[in-house]
C-alpha cells in the first residue's frame, strides 16, 4: 500500500528530506565545490506551508545575488587596505542587521550582508577566489532554492489557504463558545472573568498566528489578492471584538450590576449573536448568499424591553436611565454603573462587527470613513535606538570574530563569523543564550550522527542517500513538531549536511563538522563579549525598556484619541511591542528564578497588565464611543469635556499619580452631580449612556497612571 503521510508536520519533514537530498545530488552531478550550500538552502527555507517556503526562498535568492554583486565590487576596492577591509565588513553587517530588524524584506537584507561578507572575506584567504565565490555561491544556493520551491508545490504540499480557513473556523467556533460562556456566567450571577480573560488571550494568540501567516498566501496558486484581503479584514474585525471584550472584562461587575443584567433578558441577544456567527461561518465556507442577521433586531427588542421596565417604575434599572423618576431630588445616583454601559456598548460593537462581516462576505461595499490612520510599525522601529545599537553590536561582534580568525588562523573561522552575526542580532542576552545553546546542541547532534556514521561504515553513494534522507527527515520532523526547539533541529540539519555533502560525493574528511563546532564556539564567545561590554542588554533591562516604550507611545496615542480632531488621528501600532513584552514575561515565568527576581517579575507583570488595561480602554473609546454624540451631550450638560481630556493626557504623560487620583475624584463628582443639571432631561437616553460610558473610561485611564 502506498505510504501517504497524514500529519502536516510529517508531510513537511518528508518533503524537506527529499528536496535536500535532490539538491545535494544535483550539486554532485554538476561537480560544484561546496554542494552543502544547496542542501543547507533547502532546510533553511523549509516550512510547514507552501506560501511560507516560496516567500523565504525568493528573499534568500534575491539577497544572495544582490550580496554577491556588492561583495565582489567592494572586495576590489578594499583589496590593498586592512582598514578599508574591516570598515567595509563592519558597515555591511551593520546595515544588513539594521534593515533585518524592521523591513518586510529583512531576511533578504541579512542574506545579502552575509553573502557580501563571505565574498569580501576571500581577500584575506585567497583574493583570486573572490570572483569564483561571487559566481558559484549564488548558483549553489539557487539550486537549493529552486528545488525547495518546486517540492513545495508538488511533494506533499501543505497549503496556507487551507490552514487559514481551518484557523478561521476555529476562531468562529471559539468566539461562539465564548458568547455561551458569558451568557451562562451572567445568567448564574457568578461570572469568572479570569477564565474569560484567559480564553480571550488564547483567541488573540490564534488571531495573531493567522495574521502572521496570511502575508504569504499570495505566493500560492489559486489565491487572489481579493481573497487575501477578505481574510485579513475578517481577522481585523475579530480583533476589534476581542478588544471590546477585554474592556468588558476590565470592568468587574458588582452584585447589583449582575442583578440588572439578569433582569434585562439578554439571552435572546446572545443567542442571536451565536446564530449569526454560525451563519457567517457557513457563508465563509460555502460562499453562499447570506440571510438577514438577527442580532440588530434582538438588541432593538432589548432596548424596548429596558424602556418598558423603566416605565413600570422598577427602580433597579435606574442604572440605565435615571430620567424615569421626575423627582430629581429623590433620585438615587445608582445609574453610574460602568459595567452596564460597557456591556451595552459591547453588544452594539459586536453587532457592528457582525454587520461588517456580513457586508464583507456578501461583497456589498460599505462607504465608511476611517476614524484614524495607523502609523506603520516599520516607521517607528526605523528610528528606535535599541535597533541602531543592536546593529552596531552585530558589526562589532563580526569584527571581533574576524580578528580572532585572522590571528589564530582557525579553520572554522567563517563559521564563527556567521555564528557571531546570527547570535548578535537577537534582542537581549536571554535570547542570545537560548540561541547559542540550541545552535551548539544542534551542531553536536547533526555532526555527531555524521561522524558516527563514518566511524561505522565506509560510506558509498547508497549509504549516503539512506543516512542523509533518514537523518534530515528525523531532524525536520523534530523541528516542525516542537516549535519551541525548532532551532535545534535546523542546526542539526545544517551540521549534518555540511558533514556529509562534501565535494565530489560521500564524505571522506572529518574536518567540516569539527570546524563548524569550533566556529560556533568562536561566534558565541565574540557575541557575548560585545553584548556584555557594549550597551549590555540583559532581559530585565530590555523588558523594563519595552514597558517604558509602551507607556510613552500609548501617551502619544492617547493625545491623538482625546485631543486630535475628527479623522486626523494618527496612532502607533503597538501590537508587536505588546506581544514581544508578553513573550519575554512568559519565557521568564518558565525559568528557575531567585526570590528577588521572582519579585521583579511580579512587578513587571503588574505593569504590563496595567498597560494592557489602558490599551483596552483606549480601544473602547476609539471603537465603541461616538465622540460627536458625547460632545453634544457634554455641551447640553454644561460640562467642559476638553478640560478633563487635557488633564487626563497631561497627568498620564507626566506619570503624575497624585493628579490622576485627584482627577478621578473630580470625574466621580461630575457623575454624582450630573442628574441635577437643568438641561439633564434634554439629553436622549442613548446619548446619556454614551456620555457616562466615556467619563467612566476616562476614570479608568487616570486610575492606571504609573
TrEMBL record:
Keywords associated with the record = Cell membrane, Membrane, Transmembrane, Transmembrane helix, Transport
Its topology with respect to the membrane? Multi-pass membrane protein
User: Subcellular location, in the record's words?
Assistant: Cell membrane
Q: Where is it chiefly localized?
A: membrane
A single GO molecular-function term is: transmembrane transporter activity
Q: Per the UniProt record, which residue ranges are transmembrane? A: 12-28, 34-50, 57-76, 107-125, 131-156, 398-425, 437-457, 464-480, 517-535
- One GO CC annotation: plasma membrane
Keyword presence, Glycoprotein: no
Q: What is this protein called?
A: p-hydroxybenzoic acid efflux pump subunit AaeB
Organism of derivation: Legionella cherrii
Q: What is this organism's lineage?
A: Bacteria, Pseudomonadati, Pseudomonadota, Gammaproteobacteria, Legionellales
Amino acid at each position: 500500500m502506498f505510504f501517504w503521510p497524514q500529519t502536516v508536520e510529517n508531510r513537511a519533514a518528508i518533503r524537506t528530506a527529499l528536496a535536500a537530498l535532490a539538491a545535494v545530488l544535483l550539486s554532485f552531478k554538476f561537480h560544484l565545490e561546496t554542494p552543502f550550500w544547496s542542501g543547507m538552502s533547502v532546510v533553511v527555507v523549509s516550512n510547514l506551508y507552501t506560501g511560507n517556503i516560496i516567500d523565504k526562498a525568493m528573499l534568500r535568492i534575491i539577497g544572495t545575488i544582490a550580496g554577491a554583486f556588492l561583495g565582489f565590487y567592494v572586495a576590489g576596492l578594499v583589496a590593498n587596505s586592512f582598514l578599508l577591509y574591516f570598515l567595509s565588513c563592519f558597515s555591511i553587517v551593520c546595515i544588513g542587521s539594521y534593515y533585518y530588524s524592521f523591513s518586510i524584506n529583512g531576511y533578504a537584507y541579512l542574506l545579502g550582508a552575509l553573502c557580501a561578507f563571505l565574498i569580501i572575506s576571500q581577500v584575506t584567504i585567497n583574493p583570486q577566489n573572490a570572483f569564483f565565490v561571487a559566481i558559484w555561491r549564488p548558483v549553489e544556493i539557487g539550486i537549493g532554492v529552486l528545488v525547495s520551491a518546486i517540492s513545495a508545490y508538488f511533494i506533499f504540499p501543505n497549503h496556507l489557504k487551507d490552514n487559514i480557513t481551518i484557523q478561521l473556523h476555529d476562531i468562529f467556533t471559539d468566539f461562539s463558545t465564548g458568547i455561551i460562556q458569558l451568557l451562562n456566567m451572567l445568567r448564574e450571577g457568578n461570572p469568572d472573568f479570569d477564565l474569560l480573560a484567559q480564553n480571550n488571550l488564547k483567541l488573540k494568540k490564534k488571531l495573531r498566528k493567522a495574521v502572521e501567516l496570511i502575508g504569504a498566501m499570495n505566493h500560492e496558486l489559486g489565491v487572489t489578492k481579493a481573497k487575501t484581503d477578505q481574510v485579513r479584514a475578517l481577522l481585523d474585525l475579530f480583533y476589534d471584538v476581542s478588544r471590546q471584550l477585554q474592556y468588558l472584562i476590565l470592568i468587574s461587575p458588582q452584585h447589583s450590576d449582575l442583578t440588572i443584567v439578569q433582569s434585562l433578558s439578554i439571552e435572546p441577544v446572545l443567542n442571536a449573536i451565536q446564530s449569526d456567527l454560525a451563519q457567517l461561518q457557513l457563508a465563509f465556507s460555502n460562499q453562499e448568499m447570506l440571510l438577514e442577521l438577527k442580532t440588530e433586531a434582538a438588541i432593538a427588542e432589548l432596548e424596548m424591553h429596558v424602556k418598558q421596565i423603566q416605565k413600570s417604575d422598577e427602580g433597579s434599572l435606574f442604572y440605565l436611565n435615571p430620567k424615569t423618576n421626575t423627582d430629581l431630588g429623590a433620585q438615587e445616583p445608582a445609574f453610574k454603573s460602568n459595567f452596564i454601559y460597557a456591556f451595552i456598548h459591547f453588544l452594539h460593537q459586536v453587532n457592528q462587527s457582525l454587520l461588517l462581516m456580513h457586508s464583507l462576505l456578501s461583497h456589498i461595499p460599505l462607504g465608511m470613513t476611517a476614524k484614524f490612520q495607523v502609523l506603520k510599525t516599520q516607521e517607528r522601529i526605523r528610528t528606535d535606538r535599541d535597533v541602531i545599537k543592536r546593529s552596531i553590536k552585530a558589526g562589532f561582534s563580526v569584527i571581533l570574530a574576524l580578528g580572532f580568525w585572522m590571528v589564530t588562523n582557525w579553520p572554522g573561522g567563517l563559521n564563527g563569523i556567521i555564528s557571531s552575526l546570527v547570535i548578535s542580532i537577537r534582542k537581549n542576552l536571554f535570547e542570545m543564550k537560548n540561541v547559542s545553546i540550541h545552535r551548539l546542541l544542534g551542531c553536536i547532534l547533526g555532526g555527531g550522527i555524521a561522524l558516527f556514521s563514518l566511524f561505522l561504515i565506509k560510506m558509498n553513494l547508497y549509504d549516503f542517500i539512506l543516512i542523509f534522507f533518514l537523518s534530515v527527515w528525523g531532524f525536520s520532523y523534530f523541528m516542525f513538531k516542537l516549535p519551541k526547539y525548532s532551532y535545534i533541529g535546523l542546526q542539526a540539519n545544517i551540521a549534518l549536511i555540511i558533514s556529509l555533502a562534501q565535494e565530489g560525493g560521500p564524505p571522506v574528511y572529518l574536518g567540516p563538522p569539527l570546524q563548524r563546532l569550533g566556529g560556533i564556539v568562536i561566534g558565541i564567545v565574540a557575541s557575548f563579549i560585545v553584548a556584555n561590554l557594549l550597551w549590555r542588554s540583559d532581559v530585565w533591562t530590555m523588558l523594563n525598556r519595552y514597558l517604558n516604550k509602551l507607556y510613552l507611545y500609548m501617551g502619544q496615542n492617547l493625545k491623538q484619541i482625546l485631543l486630535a480632531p475628527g479623522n486626523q488621528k494618527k496612532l502607533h501600532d503597538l501590537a508587536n511591542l505588546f506581544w514581544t513584552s508578553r513573550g519575554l514575561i512568559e519565557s521568564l515565568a518558565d525559568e528557575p528564578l531567585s526570590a528577588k527576581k521572582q519579585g521583579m517579575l511580579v512587578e513587571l507583570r503588574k505593569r504590563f497588565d496595567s498597560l494592557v488595561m489602558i490599551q483596552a480602554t483606549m480601544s473602547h473609546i476609539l471603537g465603541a464611543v461616538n465622540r460627536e454624540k458625547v460632545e453634544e451631550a457634554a455641551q447640553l450638560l454644561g460640562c467642559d469635556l476638553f478640560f478633563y481630556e487635557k488633564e487626563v493626557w497631561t497627568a498620564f504623560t507626566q506619570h503624575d499619580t497624585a493628579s490622576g487620583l485627584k482627577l478621578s475624584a473630580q470625574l466621580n463628582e461630575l457623575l454624582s452631580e450630573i442628574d441635577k443639571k437643568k438641561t439633564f432631561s434634554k439629553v436622549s437616553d442613548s446619548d446619556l449612556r454614551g456620555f457616562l460610558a466615556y467619563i467612566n473610561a476616562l476614570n479608568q485611564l487616570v486610575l492606571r497612571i504609573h
